[in-house]
Amino acid sequence: MASPAAKVMIEVDSKWEAVIGLEVHVQLNTRTKLFSQARNGDVTAAPNQNANLVDLAYPGTLPVLNLAALTHAIRFGAAIDGSIARVCSFERKHYFYPDLPKGYQISQYSQPIVGAGVFNLWFEDGQTKTVRIRRAHLEEDAGKSIHDWLPDSTALDFNRAGTPLLEIVTEPDLHTPLEAAMFLRQLHALVIWLDLGSGNLYEGAVRCDANVSLRPKGNKNLGTACELKNLNSFKFLKNALRYEFDRQVAVLSTGASVRRETRSYDPVSGSTRSMRPKEQDRDYRYLPDPDLPPISISETTISEIRSNMPELPATVRDRFLRNFNLTPDQAYRLTLEKPLAELFEATTELCKDPQTTANWILGKVTAIRKRKQSRAQDIPISARQLSQLIERVKDGTLGFNTGKELLGKFWDTNQDLDQIIKTHDITQISDRDQISRWAARVVEENEELIPKLINGEEKLYEYFIGQVMKLSRGKANPQLVRQALQRLVTMEDKHNSSENLD
Ligand code: ADP
Ligand code: MG
User: What is the pTM of this model?
Assistant: First the structure.
């Protein structure tokens, strides 16, 4: 198999251009389901614990729209500058599946809640690209068929049935697997930023279908697309599209045409395989759901929701770039998650050093967080603690490494940093005389190594510095230690050369 780098080359070099449009399903984090009072989104529940009679499609039950889900959809619409429908309606989309007991899914077809909008995709070098959003509509999730639980049969869990989904459909404006993956990442970030859903990819809270076709470069007409189903990670999306690009190039190069079909991606082999021919809309026999009359949404409701929108990531990013002199990449990474952006801004407010704050947050804070697998909102470091840490490292009270260690050690304690420094006696030692005495002792104990040190063996220097640090129980300022050692070595050197003259 070609390496990923080689594949990127193909994307760029070949005479074919990829055309990609995504359909992203986002599970909304409302308290109850889209059309029933059953509890929504509790992943710890026992199977079927949160499925009520409506979710199970008992005869005579009726759906009642959850207005919180509608509000979520409108909030998303406002964030992408989309048109919000004054009247939206629900249709039945018919298909058979064992985990869909009604025999149809309630979805929106002719009058979706959100119409055309735009998403400004941001690249790490500060460039942007507009991806048009065609629509975003509400629909219900299906239950789950579990094939590996019982030895000879399939188990059905309806906890997920009726979970509100927002399906976001893009125009085919994306042109490389990497671009598609970046779009999904940033859309995912927006969903969490707006608190629409957990965004937990592993639990399937964001799922993506990718439509991809090829066309000769320079051609404006669209080729025949395949639909790749249920890609639930950025990497899977990227890899599935890469594989599919190569496959379609191979098909088209022989003069054959690509079949319009639905394909699934297997992350283990990294390949896609045909599942079925792609359905047409008419196969679903859409019809207005007679149990759910069209919903009118007043201007007042819409403007109220608009006025309660938080500052959007793109706006915060622009502000960071303008006010704090960050690189585009720093601004991008600090605004992928709201809690990070807030920590950055609050810390900068206190310590007045945006560059150092950005480095700490994107460096050590991010590293520890990854190790502890904590979500951004669970980072226990406060702006006050972080700014104290930054100030103590800057004024030399703490060595940089001690500072980094402290952050890890006191990650969960919410203690006052100055207090910690006092109780644990970890103030950095910058007393030059004291450091010189330690350095002299180390030099004396390692006399035989001095000629090598004079010859400038860098590794040996590190060893000497390490020895002094040990004597100081880790508290000496490493820069001063190096200086003291350098001074001593120069003296030895001079001493030796004058001896040779004798
Ligand atoms: P379908 O009706 O077959 O589901 P749609 O027109 O509804 O197709 O589009 C579904 C998704 O597929 C959209 O995201 C759209 O941008 C994308 N899409 C449509 N046609 C193409 C194409 N020729 N190549 C790539 N993507 C496409
Ligand atoms: Mg469609």
Answer: 0.85
